[in-house]
Please model this.
Amino acid sequence: MLRKYVHVVSSVGVAVLVVCSAAPVWAQASLGTAQPFAVVGGSTVTNTGASVITGDLGVSPGASVTGGPTVTGTIHAADAVALAAQNDIVTQYNALASAACTADLTGQNLGGLTLTQGVYCFSTSAQLTGALTLNAQGNAAATFIFKTGSTLTSAAGSTVSLINGGNPCGVAWQIGSSATLGTTTSFIGNLIALTSITLNTGANIVGGRALARNGAVTLDTNNISFAPCTLAGTPPTVPTLAAWAMIALSGLLALAGFLTLRRRQSLTY
Model:
């Protein structure tokens, strides 16, 4: 009976490990306190024209927000909330930077490509001219990560589209220096740049964010709104080391209780 009980406990432990290891590496998984923000700048956020930010707007360590974009959420300038968001952006940036590449697209233009989920890397700059299509192949948890050694630039009128059941929460862009979206570009995903982000006139991010770590976010008559990640397939919370310790302790206590019960039963009989 004891051997059977230990086997059951071990099976449960294996099942927990399988569930956690099989969880998709969603691009939004580590945004933490930055989740409510549609725009975060490191030095300033400047705007020209009638930009609409659906979500919060933050600046840290800088404090300047100029040009009066319409913000549906809260503006946090050099406060504790903005600082916490920037810290979590750094965490996410580093996590994306450490993701292993599944394809090296250095020297290729993203325009005209149709890509399935993966981690796509550019050793230097990346260019988007035309339409980039991300095919989730019916997987709501499909993950698309793009990493550049330096810049990302899109030409006027370029588009990024997500088809076949994908979730914008699974799209992320880790930019080694600065990103510039050309006039009327339609973009998807969390755009995280080490330095600055510039959106030219009429460029929109629908289902994503503009997050600059150290420099400015520059806007000109743009719409930016992030996608709420509430669909089935949203990644489970992976236990921390402390949580694993509690799980192990709970298992040991359960085993000890079982052994005590069996001992009492044997003494009774």
Summary: The chain is about 25% helix and 35% strand. The radius of gyration is 23 Å. Confidence is low (pLDDT under 50) at residues 1-28, 230-241.
